Amino acid sequence: GWFRRLLHKPKPSSVESSLNASRSTSSSPSSSSSSAESSGSSPSTSLVRSVRPSPISLSDINASGSARWAKNYDVCICHSEVDLEVVEELVSYLESQPESFRCFLQPRDATPGSAVVTELCDAVQNSHCWVMLITPGFLRDPWCKYQMHQALAEAPMANGRTIPVLKDVERKDYPKELRNLYYIYMALKENSFRQIRDTVMR
After folding, report:
1. Where are the domains of the chain?
2. Which among 26, 114, 150, 162 could disulfide-bond with 124, CB atoms 3.0 to 4.6 Å apart, if both were Cys?
3. Where is this region: Disordered (predicted)?
4. What's the chain look like in SS3?
């Protein structure tokens, strides 16, 4: 399936093309560092970034031709059932922001009667970012691990971003599959929610 998607990958829209072109001209050190990272060069060269890409404005994100509208959701929240209360607070926070983030929340947005596997795969494929709320309940839930692996498999093809968020989990219990990704540690909910929002915006 992934090979077929690679062959039939749609051409980027004019907005994406112009955005990519402006990034490549204005932040060439960043692009060279990403190529250095992929070629496996030393960490000292891959961490040097003298120019950061300019932030995308709210009008760019909400424009009708924006790449944002190519998918049904901005954020897919992967969580265990025992963490539903904090996830509902996070979704409420994100959806009330000026950007009006579109969040996939399984108990609310999954289609009754559909297979769990189908719903989880569709949620991942139809989202730009995937927030993994890593808690003791997440680590025990096989469906959470399944969705985590789906997001990791989808990210390279879709230019998406997996955002691990640790809550009540020690560093030693952090899933090995995610150890190449920076994570957000949820201590104060308000600060963590803001950090998640800023990460999604990037």
Report:
1. 68-201
2. 150
3. 1-51
4. CHHHHHHCCCCCCHHHHHHHHHHHHHCHHHHHHHHHHHHCCCHHHHCCCCCCCCCCCHHHHHCCCCHHHHCCEEEEEECCHHHHHHHHHHHHHHHCCCCCCCEECHHHHCCCCCCHHHHHHHHHHCEEEEEEEECHHHHHCHHHHHHHHHHHHHHHHHCCEEEEEECCCCHHHCCHHHCCCCCEECCCHHHHHHHHHHHHHC
